[in-house]
Amino acid sequence: MERVAFLVDATGERVDCLLNPETVQVNRLAGVRVRGTAAGQLTGAGLSDDPLVFTGGGRTEIRLDVLFDVDLVPGQSRPEDVRALTRKLWVLAENSAQQDGALRPPLVRLVWGKAWNVPGIIAAIAERFDYFTPGGNPRRSWLRMRMIRTAESTAQVPQQMVMDESQTPTDSGPAGETRAEAHAAAPAATSSSTPAAAGTAGTAVTVVGDGQPVGPGNAAEGSGYSGVRFDLVSNEVLGSPLPWRSLAEHNHIDNPLTLKPGTVIFAPPPGTPAPVLPLSGTPPRRGLP
Predict the structure, then answer these.
(1) Same domain, residue pair 168 and 92
(2) How many helices (H) and strands (E) does the chain have?
(3) What is the pTM of this model?
(4) Is there a single domain that holds both residue 181 and residue 66?
(5) How many Cα neighbours within 13 Å face the side chain of 264?
(6) Does residue 238 sit in the same domain as residue 217?
(7) I need a surface site. Which of 38, 194, 244, 268 has the fewest CB within 10 A?
(8) Listed residues 119, 136, 156: the one ending a domain
(9) 168 shares a domain with 138
(10) Is the dihedral of CA 88, 89, 90, 92 positive or negative?
(11) Integer Cα distance of 4 and 67 in angstroms
(12) Structural domain ending residue among the three candidates 92, 125, 156
């Protein structure tokens, strides 16, 4: 009979369970959170549901309960204390491995025959003892473990899930909502490592779009607009969504709701005064100040 085991990737060590679990619970948490601002959660009295932000990613958890009993171990190798059998599983939840100079739990694989081979880390472990000897040694353990699935290596993470510093999400909107790629306006056009450098002359972003479909039933049908929120563009370029009017005037944009894909937005030089009059055209909505 195949037994559940945990294989440590770095060392190849195998940690076997004494008995297979009767049940295995798998939970999936999608990359969704409630939309919020720096002041708190964003909601409204007229809404039936809180607005959501789709951040991508997510988390998959595996929970299993395993029984250890010293009476089930052959006589020659039977320990007096059941903790001698479960100690190796506790070590898997310790920061005993290193990555980029920082400590972390080791990467392990949950292996059970040919049906289960899941890489991850042991995020939590709990143990309940009973069947004690007169000397206080526990002889039976009910062990509960929570494992979080991880990518086996950074090279195997899909490229669309890897964000560099120029795509770091902010509190003003969801991850990648503007889909803007920070770059320098110089002829050598290299990516900036400080995307939201407030007031930095020459900083620019290229508007790509937020992925909204253009088709039947869509408000942008036939318009060719990107659907990007200009306050989020301002946050990418200037480090704050508040001066969006000044940014729009500097780039000669009359209506921020009609940005076309491929539009390049440049940051004004430091010290540029904010406009006194509002922009002409339809005032921006969708949460703009």
Answers:
(1) no
(2) 3, 14
(3) 0.49
(4) no
(5) 10
(6) yes
(7) 38
(8) 156
(9) no
(10) positive
(11) 12
(12) 156
**Chain-centre distance for alpha carbon 191:** 23
Task: Encode the chain (289 residues) as per-residue pLDDT tens digits.
Answer: 678 999 998 888 898 888 888 899 999 999 998 887 777 666 667 778 888 888 888 999 999 999 999 988 888 888 999 999 999 999 999 998 888 888 989 999 999 988 999 999 999 999 999 999 999 999 999 999 999 999 765 455 444 333 343 344 443 343 333 333 333 333 333 333 333 333 444 477 777 654 444 444 444 444 455 567 777 788 788 878 778 888 888 888 888 877 777 788 888 877 666 554 444 444 444 444 4
C-alpha distance from residue 9 to each of 33, 107, 110, 121, 229 (Å) = 32, 6, 11, 11, 44
Going by their DSSP bridges, the two strands 24-34 and 52-69 should be labelled as antiparallel
For residue 200, the enclosing domain spans 163-289
Dist CA 192 CA 253 (whole Å): 24
**For the chain, what is the domain count?**
2
Q: Which of 1, 39, 35, 32 is CA-nearest to residue 18?
A: 1
- If asked whether residues 95 and 34 sit together in one domain, one would say yes
